[in-house]
Design goal:
This protein has 11 helices and 12 strands. It is an alpha+beta fold. The chain has a 6-stranded antiparallel beta sheet, with no helix packed on it. Strands 7-6-12-11 form a 4-stranded antiparallel beta sheet, with no helix packed on it. It has a two-stranded antiparallel sheet with strand order 3-4. α3 packs parallel to α5, α4 packs antiparallel against α5 and α5 packs antiparallel against α6.
Length: 382
């Protein structure tokens, strides 16, 4: 009689011949054991995580309901014996492959932390050692093996211990999903039957990663667009560690295309990094620039209003009125100035003038709504 290892080896040869799943060239045939392949990805900002796995069913291929027989039985506890060694595989002891058929793999586009422990970017085999009260999640550098049968602990890049979660929600098919999705962290969760096993993935310094990436990108083709320098300076101005770069990048935008847009951007950046006096000087230069339009100046003042800088906004509304007489936004700006001062009669007068000049559409509809508020004696400013 043939030994069990020999029978298993022959079965694998038959599987390779009929499904192509062990060969370099694959036929398009149903997956072995009806264990469907699944891929799930999640982003944390620019950092991606992808899990590629084959999903077994609680109900066996022969129709047997295995509820209550998964943990500690179908999936043995801990690092367990390879039942086919030495007939197949080099591992005498192995963890669970967290799925079926080939290795379950997990890929990271950038360096991350798993449960607070560092793990380099790359593709790993994902194994788990199951336990009644705690599980070990294993990231192994050999991501191309078949299941756990060739598991080599010397290739482990990281092991972390996590707690399983029992749930009333039943999962017929083993499923990976992501919850608690934040800009710099998420939880990957394996859920099968009535058990969930989560582990946290985080990016330790997301601003530094963006800064490094933006800096590199600006040296390439994207650096030929002044809009990209504006966008970079706006982002950096909101990161305390990169205020100096914010100003440098704002200057680069001006060097690429000196205009109201780029000069006013620098003024906004200077204001954000705490250089208010310089910001006002640069904003005046933007307002006086030949490319400045009445609408652009009006919107700059509105932006200052939104930041609570009402006096500065009113000064710009007045300058716009003097610089661009007859254009519809300038009277709307003056209506806001007078409304802020409590002079609703003058505010209403200017708002009605603006209405006669405003283009049809949202601007006119907004003006009509503001006029109604002024007629009720209400302030139209934020």
């Amino acid at each position: 009689m043939r030994s069990q290892p020999l029978r298993f080896a022959l079965a694998l040869l038959m599987l390779a011949a009929t499904t192509g799943s062990l060969s370099a060239q694959r036929l398009t045939v149903p997956p072995p054991g009806a264990n469907q392949r699944a891929v799930v990805s999640q982003y944390m900002g620019m950092v991606s995580v992808t899990i590629d796995y084959n999903s077994p069913d609680v109900t066996s291929p022969t129709g047997q309901d295995r509820t209550g027989q998964i943990w500690g039985q179908l999936v043995p506890w801990g690092i367990h014996a390879n039942p086919f060694y030495p007939g197949f595989g080099s591992a005498e002891q192995m963890p669970w492959r967290v799925g079926a058929n080939e290795n379950t793999t997990i890929s990271f586009s950038h360096d991350v932390q798993i449960e607070g422990q560092p793990l380099a970017a790359g593709r790993y085999a994902l194994f788990m050692a199951a336990g009644e009260s705690e599980w070990t999640v294993i990231f192994n550098r050999n991501s191309n093996a078949w299941g756990s049968f060739f598991y080599d602990p010397s290739l482990d890049a990281l092991e972390v211990t996590v707690e399983p979660e029992k749930t009333d929600f039943f999962r017929e098919w083993l499923t990976f999903e992501f919850d608690d999705r934040q800009l710099d962290s998420t939880r990957a969760v394996m859920h099968w039957e009535h058990l969930r096993v989560p582990f946290t993935i985080s990016v330790p310094d997301m601003p530094a990663l963006y800064h490094q990436t933006i800096s590199q990108e600006l040296t390439g083709a994207v650096g030929f667009s002044f809009q990209n320098w504006i966008q970079a300076s706006q982002w950096a101005s909101q990161q305390e560690a990169y205020h100096e770069d914010a100003v440098v990048w704002a200057d680069a935008a001006i060097a690429a295309n000196a205009s109201f847009q780029t000069i006013s951007n620098k003024a906004q950046v200077l204001g954000r990094v705490g250089r208010g006096e310089e910001a006002m000087e640069i904003l005046n230069q933007a307002i006086d620039h030949p490319t400045a339009t009445a609408v652009q100046v009006h919107m700059a003042a509105r932006g200052l209003q939104a930041q609570g800088q009402m006096d500065t906004a009113n000064m710009i509304f007045r300058r716009n009125y003097e610089k661009n007489p007859g254009e519809w936004p300038v009277d709307f700006g003056m209506a806001r100035v007078y409304a802020q001062e409590g002079n609703f009669e003058k505010a209403l007068e200017h708002a009605k003038i603006a209405l006669t000049r405003a283009p049809a559409g949202p601007q006119m509809q907004n003006l009509e709504a503001q006029i109604e508020k002024l007629e009720r004696g209400e302030n139209i400013n934020p």
